[in-house]
Amino acid sequence: MKLVTYALTGAFMLASTAAFAESHGAAEENTQQMIVEAALAGGDAAAGEKIFKKCKACHMIGEGAKSRTGPPLNDMVGAEVGDLEGFKYSKGMVALAEEDTVWTIENLNALFLKPRDFIEKTKMSFAGLKDEEDRANLIAYLATFTTVEADD
Ligand code: HEC
User: Would you state the torsion angle of the CA atoms of residues 32, 127, 43, 51, taken in this order, to the nearest 10 degrees?
Assistant: First the structure.
């Protein structure tokens, strides 16, 4: 039930972000750009880098990042959930991907609060980050590794 709620929240957030983009005359492709900008504005990326130490046992980020226990985390903010080809996600992740869930700030925040609540039977064995500021800073840090392709 919780999973469904989160997925719906995600869809709703995306829809409202897209609506915002439209009302400001921007193309829908700019949605990811807007999520990235909001993530950067919402936290301190330098502080987030320190939090990311907790993730390094399983995730790589930056140039040359490869899959470890978890997928590499470049270009993740505002991207589709579970979109990395060749990575063997859990069924719970595949289900979220099939619902076209997007890594909005809200969804990343829910993931980092308690991975097990956001993804059913997730393979990500990480307890979560209780501090809201830590989560915001971490999301800002991840956003510095997300490059959105410019529109023509
Ligand atoms: C013990 C290993 C482990 C740790 C620690 C861990 N992760 Fe993960 N992470 C995974 C695995 C495995 C998956 C795939 C989850 C699944 O398939 O259920 C994942 C998935 C993710 C995803 C979704 C990726 C996608 O392709 O959509 C993100 C984002 C993520 N992790 C970020 C983090 C961050 C940030 C941290 C640190 C706070 C962290 N993880 C800590 C193992 C880990």
Answer: -110
Which pair of tokens denotes residue 10? 């995600």
Q: 70 near 82, Cβ under 8 Å?
A: no
Interval 111-131 mean pLDDT: 98
Give the closest residue to 129 by CA, choosing from 105, 111, 147, 148: 111
Instruction: Yes or no: say if 42 and 105 are a contact pair by the CB < 8 Å rule.
Output: yes
**Per-residue pLDDT at 40:** 97
The Cα–Cα gap between 125 and 72 comes to 16
Average pLDDT over residues 97-111: 97
| CA-proximal residue: ligand 1, atom 35 (nearest) | 55
User: CB neighbours (10 Å) of residue 33?
Assistant: 19
From ligand 1's centre to the CA of 102, what distance in Å? Answer: 15
Instruction: Give residue 3 CA to ligand 1 midpoint distance, Å.
Output: 17
The alpha carbons of the chain give a radius of gyration, in whole angstroms, of 15
Q: What is the mean pLDDT of residues 66-74?
A: 97
